[in-house]
C-alpha cells in the first residue's frame, strides 16, 4: 500500500541523523489506528512515521493509553493497523513472524511445556533440525542463566526466571527486531534492575535491534540510544531524544549516579509529564 | 509453613473429611436398618431392609432375574452408555473445540446449540421412538443426546478459556494457526476437556435408566422398572444402589485422569 501523503504528519524530531547509512530493519509509514465504539470512531494512533535501524535500542514512552503498545502489536503483526504500511526489512509485512518476536509483560510462556520446550518452540515451528535446535537452546539458556532449569515448568520458576525464559524463547530466533512490551512491568523492583542489566548485556553481545515499550523513563535512558515520547491519545510522536552516552555499560545504580543521566531523565520526564497533565 | 508441614496438614484434613463422610453413610444405613428390620416401622414391601437388599445382591450375582444375572444386566447398560458417550464425544469434542477456536463456527453453531441445550434428554424419547422404534438404537440415541451437550460446552469453554496471549506468542514465534491450536491451546485445555468427558459420562449414565423404558429387555434401569411391576422392591433397590455406586466410580475415575493430566499446573492448594 503506498503511503498516503495527506495522512503523513511531519514529525518534529530529527530522524537519526548520521544513522541513515545503517540498515533500516523496521519502518512505519503513516501507520494509524482507530477503533469503532458505541460513541463513534476513536482514534488511538495518529499517523506514525518511524524507522528502526540495525542496532537501535528504541524506547516508546508516553502516558497510559497513548497507543504505544498498540504500535508495538501492529509491528508484531498481532494487531491490524487502520492504514499505513509497516516495512519489515524493506518488505511490507502482514503476518506475525519470528523475525519480529515479542516479549510480553505477562511472559506468556506455554504452561504445558518445559523451559527447553518453550525456548525450542519457535525453532521447531520454523523447521530447524533437531541437533541444531538442541545446540542453540543450550547456548541461549546459558546466556540468560537458566541452564540449571532447562527441564522446569514455567509455574516452578520465579517471576524473574520466567521472564528470562520468555526472553530466551525470543532471542533464540535471532529476530531482526526484538519487540518488548513493558517486559519488566510484572517484576519486583530488585529483579527489574537485575533484568535491565541482563538485557543490556545480551543486547550488546548479540547486537540486537530492540523496540521497547515502557512506562519508566529511567529504564529508557539506561537501555536505549533513542527515546520516542508519544503524545496523549491519539498518540503521535511528540519528540525524539537521542541518548549520547551509552549508560548500559554501567550497572543501573552507577549510571543513575552520573550527572548526565539525571539531567536527561528529567528532560524526558518533563516531556512525558506535559502529556500526562494535558489530559488530567 | 514448610512443605512437609503443609502436606501433613493436608493429609489430616483429608482423613477427617473421609471419616466424617464414612460416619454419615453408616448413620444413614443404621437409620434405614432401624426403621425396617430393627423397629419394623415400615413394611418391607414399601422399603425393604438393608439386610434383605444385600442378600438379594449376592443372590443376583449368581441367579438370573428377568433373563440375566447382575453381570448381564450391568453390561447391557454399560454397553449403551459406552456407545452413546463415545459417539457424543466424536461429535461434541471437535464441534466444541471448533466453536472455541473460530468465531465463524461459533456464530453458525451457537444459535442451534442454545436451542437444543435446554431440552431434557427424556424429551427426545418420543422422537427416538419415531425414528428408531423401540430398540437399542433408540436408547443409544437418547443417551448420546444427553452426553453431547456437556461434551460440546466443556470443549468450547476449555479452548476459549486458554489465555489468548499464548496463541499470540505462538503466532509471533512463527507457528501457523492450526499448529498453534495443536501445540499450545489443546494441551492447555486438556484438564477442562477431561472434565467435560466426566460430566458427559455422568449424564449418559443417568439417562440410560430412562432410556431403558424404550423396550429394553436387559439393563439396570430395566431391572428397576420391572421390579415395580413384579412388586419386588428388594431388587429395585439393588439396581438403584448399583446405579449410584457406578456413577461415583466413573466420576472419581475420570477425576483421577484429570489430575494426572494436569501435572504441569500448580498443585491445587
Automatic annotation (TrEMBL), chain B:
Transmembrane residue ranges: 15-34, 70-95, 115-134, 140-159, 205-225, 237-257
Entry keywords, A to Z: Cell membrane, Membrane, Transmembrane, Transmembrane helix, Transport
CDD domains: TM_PBP2
UniProt cross-references to InterPro entries, sorted A to Z: MetI-like (IPR000515), MetI-like_sf (IPR035906)
Keyword Transport applies: yes
Localization, UniProt: Cell membrane
Topological relation to the membrane, as annotated: Multi-pass membrane protein
Source taxon at top rank: Bacteria
ABC transmembrane type-1 domain mapped to chain residues: 74-254
Transmembrane found in the keyword field: yes
Pfam (any one): BPD_transp_1
Family: Belongs to the binding-protein-dependent transport system permease family.
Name of the protein: ABC transporter permease
Species of origin: Prauserella endophytica
